[in-house]
Amino acid sequence: MFRLSMLLSCIFMTNTAMEDKNIATNFVDSTDVTDFDQYAVTCYICVNVSDNLVCNQFAIDRPCKPGETFCHTLHIMDKKGTSILVNKKCTTEKECQRNKVGCVEIDAQTICVSCCDQNYCNVNVPTNSSTAVFDDKISKMRMLAKNLFREREKALTTTIKESNRGARSLNAVFSLRSLSIVFLLLGNV
């Protein structure tokens, strides 16, 4: 039983290291990033802790890295419901998806995973299918705000382009009228 817990714990830690490596290789120019992408959630972070109280008491308290917008919690319990292992971390949208949360029983142990995207939302550990949930309220609001911002920016750009075209046409009309007046004056001289 405990071997399974240790295996899952190793996978949990290794996955983070692999993601960090991938993030480094897929570096995006920071000038491309909008304010919406700068949002940093703060999660309780602990690895291989015996229970939730110890995790929260000694958790690392720092904002997640850019791109890590979810708090991920892995909780393993024995058949009596006593905590065996608690892991909490910051992670990306790729790892925290609706189909990757919930509880499963393996070898008289219950393994529960939950994901959320609000500051310190992983204060509690999931203990059953009702608490092992996927909560992406902030991500949805950020996406809506980002889309509204882009639409507004697009509308402003279009308006500016149209007003520039109108000004050029108006300048051309004034230039033609000025030329015709000059020709009229020259013709009369």
UniProtKB/TrEMBL annotation:
InterPro entries: LYPD6-like, Snake_toxin-like_sf. CDD domains: TFP_LU_ECD_LYPD6_like. Pfam families: UPAR_LY6_2. Residues 1-17 form the signal peptide. GO terms for cellular component: plasma membrane; side of membrane. It comes from the Eukaryota. It is found in: Cell membrane. One of its GO terms (molecular function) is acetylcholine receptor regulator activity. This is Uncharacterized protein. It comes from Acanthoscelides obtectus.
